[in-house]
Amino acid sequence: MNDMRPLERAVETKEIKFECRDCQVYYGDTHAIKDVNVDIEDKTVTAFIGPSGCGKSTFLRCLNRMNDTIDIARVEGSFLLDGENIYDKRVDPVQLRAKVGMVFQKPNPFPKSIYDNIAYGPRIHGLAKNKAELDEIVEKSLRRGAIWNEVKDRLDAPGTGLSGGQQQRLCIARAVATEPEVLLMDEPCSALDPIATAQVEELIDELRESYSVVIVTHSMQQAARVSQKTAFFHLGNLVEFGETGQIFTNPKDPRTESYITGRIG
Amino acid sequence: MPLLWIVLVVLGLGLIGYLMGRSRALGSAGGDGRQLHSLPSYYGWHGFMLTVVPALLMMAAWLLVAPSVIENRAAAGIPDAKIAERGSRSLVMAEVRRTGEALDMAVAQGTMDEDMARNLRADFTDVTERLKATGAIITTTVDQPILEAAQNYRVMAKASNLYMSIAVLGLAVVGLVFAFMRSDKDFRARNVVEQGIKAILILASTIAIMTTLGIVLSMLFETANFFEQYSWREFFFGLNWAPDFRGNSELGMLPLLWGTLYISLVALLVAVPIGLFAAIYLSEYASPRLRAVAKPMIEILAGIPTIVYGLFALITVGPLIRDWIAQPAGFGNSTNSVITAGLVMGIMLIPFVSSLSDDIINAVPQAMRDGSYGLGATQSETIKQVVLPAALPGIVGAVLLAASRAIGETMIVVMGAGAAAAQMEQGLGAIINPFQAMTTVTVKIVSQLTGDTDFASPETLVAFALGLTLFVITLGLNVLALYIVRKYREQYE
Question: Where does the ABC transporter domain start and stop, copy by copy (chain A) (predicted)?
Answer without folding.
Answer: 11-260
